[in-house]
Amino acid sequence: MPRSNRYILPGFIYHRTHRCHNRKFLLKCRLDRIEYCTRLRDAVHEYRISLLDFSVTSNHVHMAAMCRRIADLSQFMQQLEDEFADYYNLRKHRSGSFWGERFHSTMIDGGDHLWNCLRYIDQNMVRAGIVRHPMDWPWCGYNEIVGKRQHFRLLDIDCLVEMLGLYDPRGDRDECGVGFVANIICNQLTTTSENGRICRKRTKSSRFRV
User: Fold this and answer.
1) pTM confidence score
2) Quick one: pLDDT at residue 176?
3) Which of 21, 42, 64, 168 could be 97's S-S partner, Cβ–Cβ 3.0 to 4.6 Å?
4) Looking at the domain 13-199, which fold is it?
Protein backbone atom coordinates (compact mmCIF):
# COMPACT_ATOMS: atom_id res chain seq x y z
CA MET A 1 0.00 0.00 0.00
CA PRO A 2 1.24 3.54 -0.67
CA ARG A 3 2.33 5.57 2.31
CA SER A 4 -0.10 8.11 3.70
CA ASN A 5 0.91 11.73 3.46
CA ARG A 6 2.22 13.52 6.52
CA TYR A 7 0.49 16.80 7.22
CA ILE A 8 2.99 19.15 8.83
CA LEU A 9 1.67 22.55 9.86
CA PRO A 10 4.14 25.41 10.22
CA GLY A 11 4.30 27.05 13.64
CA PHE A 12 3.45 23.84 15.53
CA ILE A 13 5.79 21.63 17.55
CA TYR A 14 6.36 18.01 16.55
CA HIS A 15 7.93 15.25 18.60
CA ARG A 16 9.73 12.95 16.19
CA THR A 17 11.23 9.55 16.91
CA HIS A 18 13.23 7.36 14.54
CA ARG A 19 14.57 3.92 15.43
CA CYS A 20 17.45 2.01 13.93
CA HIS A 21 16.67 -0.98 11.71
CA ASN A 22 15.30 -3.90 13.75
CA ARG A 23 15.97 -1.81 16.87
CA LYS A 24 19.66 -2.62 16.58
CA PHE A 25 22.18 -0.55 18.53
CA LEU A 26 23.73 1.03 15.46
CA LEU A 27 24.40 4.29 17.30
CA LYS A 28 26.32 2.66 20.15
CA CYS A 29 29.63 4.14 18.98
CA ARG A 30 30.48 7.59 20.37
CA LEU A 31 31.99 8.58 17.00
CA ASP A 32 28.68 7.99 15.22
CA ARG A 33 26.65 9.95 17.77
CA ILE A 34 29.04 12.89 17.37
CA GLU A 35 28.72 12.66 13.59
CA TYR A 36 24.92 12.55 13.81
CA CYS A 37 24.85 15.65 16.02
CA THR A 38 27.16 17.48 13.61
CA ARG A 39 24.90 16.65 10.68
CA LEU A 40 21.85 17.57 12.75
CA ARG A 41 23.26 21.04 13.41
CA ASP A 42 24.04 21.56 9.72
CA ALA A 43 20.55 20.45 8.65
CA VAL A 44 18.88 22.67 11.27
CA HIS A 45 20.71 25.69 9.87
CA GLU A 46 20.06 24.75 6.24
CA TYR A 47 16.30 24.30 6.66
CA ARG A 48 15.88 26.96 9.38
CA ILE A 49 14.29 24.50 11.76
CA SER A 50 13.64 25.54 15.35
CA LEU A 51 15.03 22.56 17.24
CA LEU A 52 13.72 22.69 20.82
CA ASP A 53 15.24 19.49 22.19
CA PHE A 54 16.80 16.22 21.05
CA SER A 55 18.35 12.99 22.26
CA VAL A 56 20.56 10.56 20.35
CA THR A 57 20.50 7.18 22.07
CA SER A 58 22.19 3.93 21.04
CA ASN A 59 19.32 2.76 18.84
CA HIS A 60 16.98 5.69 18.19
CA VAL A 61 16.73 9.47 18.16
CA HIS A 62 14.20 11.94 19.54
CA MET A 63 13.56 15.51 18.44
CA ALA A 64 11.14 18.26 19.38
CA ALA A 65 11.09 20.74 16.52
CA MET A 66 8.99 23.21 14.58
CA CYS A 67 9.25 24.83 11.16
CA ARG A 68 8.12 28.04 9.47
CA ARG A 69 7.27 26.53 6.08
CA ILE A 70 5.17 23.43 5.36
CA ALA A 71 7.73 21.27 3.56
CA ASP A 72 10.81 22.15 5.60
CA LEU A 73 10.45 19.68 8.48
CA SER A 74 9.91 16.62 6.29
CA GLN A 75 12.73 17.59 3.92
CA PHE A 76 14.97 18.24 6.89
CA MET A 77 14.36 14.76 8.30
CA GLN A 78 14.71 13.03 4.95
CA GLN A 79 18.04 14.66 4.12
CA LEU A 80 19.47 14.20 7.61
CA GLU A 81 18.51 10.54 7.95
CA ASP A 82 19.40 9.53 4.37
CA GLU A 83 22.81 11.21 4.40
CA PHE A 84 23.70 9.83 7.82
CA ALA A 85 22.72 6.32 6.72
CA ASP A 86 25.01 6.68 3.67
CA TYR A 87 27.85 7.87 5.91
CA TYR A 88 27.38 4.97 8.33
CA ASN A 89 27.21 2.31 5.61
CA LEU A 90 30.34 3.70 4.00
CA ARG A 91 32.25 3.79 7.28
CA LYS A 92 31.18 0.26 8.23
CA HIS A 93 31.51 -1.16 4.70
CA ARG A 94 27.94 -2.37 4.89
CA SER A 95 24.77 -2.12 2.81
CA GLY A 96 21.09 -2.17 3.60
CA SER A 97 18.80 -0.12 5.78
CA PHE A 98 20.09 1.88 8.72
CA TRP A 99 16.70 3.15 9.87
CA GLY A 100 13.63 1.07 10.57
CA GLU A 101 10.15 2.17 9.59
CA ARG A 102 9.31 5.81 8.91
CA PHE A 103 9.89 8.15 11.79
CA HIS A 104 7.02 8.62 14.22
CA SER A 105 5.67 12.17 14.44
CA THR A 106 3.25 13.64 17.00
CA MET A 107 2.03 17.23 17.22
CA ILE A 108 2.70 18.72 20.65
CA ASP A 109 0.89 21.61 22.32
CA GLY A 110 2.83 24.18 24.30
CA GLY A 111 2.71 24.51 28.07
CA ASP A 112 2.38 21.29 30.08
CA HIS A 113 2.41 19.08 26.99
CA LEU A 114 5.73 20.55 25.91
CA TRP A 115 7.16 20.21 29.44
CA ASN A 116 6.21 16.53 29.41
CA CYS A 117 7.82 16.06 26.01
CA LEU A 118 11.06 17.71 27.14
CA ARG A 119 11.20 15.53 30.26
CA TYR A 120 10.61 12.43 28.20
CA ILE A 121 13.38 13.29 25.74
CA ASP A 122 16.00 14.43 28.24
CA GLN A 123 15.41 11.61 30.72
CA ASN A 124 15.55 8.89 28.08
CA MET A 125 18.96 7.56 29.04
CA VAL A 126 18.22 8.03 32.75
CA ARG A 127 15.20 5.72 32.42
CA ALA A 128 17.40 3.24 30.57
CA GLY A 129 19.83 3.22 33.50
CA ILE A 130 22.76 4.42 31.38
CA VAL A 131 23.34 7.69 33.27
CA ARG A 132 22.20 9.12 36.60
CA HIS A 133 21.33 12.58 35.30
CA PRO A 134 20.57 14.06 31.83
CA MET A 135 23.63 16.31 32.12
CA ASP A 136 25.77 13.15 31.98
CA TRP A 137 24.55 12.29 28.46
CA PRO A 138 26.14 14.86 26.11
CA TRP A 139 24.07 13.77 23.10
CA CYS A 140 20.85 15.40 24.26
CA GLY A 141 19.64 18.98 24.60
CA TYR A 142 19.55 19.22 28.39
CA ASN A 143 22.91 20.95 28.96
CA GLU A 144 22.18 23.51 26.27
CA ILE A 145 18.67 24.19 27.59
CA VAL A 146 19.92 24.96 31.11
CA GLY A 147 22.82 27.07 29.83
CA LYS A 148 25.71 24.67 30.52
CA ARG A 149 26.72 24.23 26.88
CA GLN A 150 28.05 27.40 25.26
CA HIS A 151 29.61 25.85 22.15
CA PHE A 152 28.26 23.61 19.40
CA ARG A 153 24.70 24.83 19.98
CA LEU A 154 21.81 23.21 18.17
CA LEU A 155 18.70 24.53 19.91
CA ASP A 156 16.54 27.60 19.37
CA ILE A 157 16.40 28.65 23.03
CA ASP A 158 14.44 31.85 22.37
CA CYS A 159 11.74 29.86 20.60
CA LEU A 160 11.67 27.29 23.40
CA VAL A 161 11.30 30.00 26.06
CA GLU A 162 8.45 31.55 24.07
CA MET A 163 6.64 28.24 23.57
CA LEU A 164 6.93 27.46 27.29
CA GLY A 165 5.60 30.91 28.18
CA LEU A 166 8.69 31.77 30.21
CA TYR A 167 10.04 35.27 30.39
CA ASP A 168 12.70 36.86 32.59
CA PRO A 169 10.94 39.59 34.62
CA ARG A 170 14.08 41.70 34.26
CA GLY A 171 13.36 41.86 30.55
CA ASP A 172 16.88 40.75 29.68
CA ARG A 173 16.38 38.75 26.50
CA ASP A 174 20.12 38.07 26.23
CA GLU A 175 19.88 35.98 29.40
CA CYS A 176 17.11 33.67 28.17
CA GLY A 177 18.16 30.06 28.65
CA VAL A 178 20.49 30.93 31.55
CA GLY A 179 19.99 32.49 34.96
CA PHE A 180 16.34 33.01 35.89
CA VAL A 181 14.81 31.07 32.99
CA ALA A 182 17.39 28.26 33.18
CA ASN A 183 16.62 27.68 36.85
CA ILE A 184 12.92 27.28 36.09
CA ILE A 185 13.64 24.86 33.27
CA CYS A 186 16.15 22.86 35.31
CA ASN A 187 13.67 22.46 38.17
CA GLN A 188 10.87 21.46 35.81
CA LEU A 189 12.90 18.89 33.92
CA THR A 190 14.50 17.08 36.85
CA THR A 191 14.04 16.33 40.52
CA THR A 192 17.01 14.77 42.31
CA SER A 193 16.67 12.25 45.14
CA GLU A 194 18.99 11.99 48.14
CA ASN A 195 21.24 9.47 46.41
CA GLY A 196 21.76 11.80 43.46
CA ARG A 197 19.56 9.94 40.99
CA ILE A 198 16.84 11.63 39.01
CA CYS A 199 13.28 11.10 40.22
CA ARG A 200 11.10 10.73 37.16
CA LYS A 201 8.20 13.16 37.10
CA ARG A 202 5.02 11.36 36.16
CA THR A 203 3.04 12.60 33.20
CA LYS A 204 -0.70 12.34 32.65
CA SER A 205 -0.35 11.23 29.04
CA SER A 206 1.23 8.18 27.45
CA ARG A 207 1.52 9.86 24.06
CA PHE A 208 5.29 10.02 24.40
CA ARG A 209 5.81 6.30 24.96
CA VAL A 210 7.32 5.28 21.64
Assistant:
1) 0.82
2) 46
3) 21
4) Alpha-Beta Plaits (3.30.70)
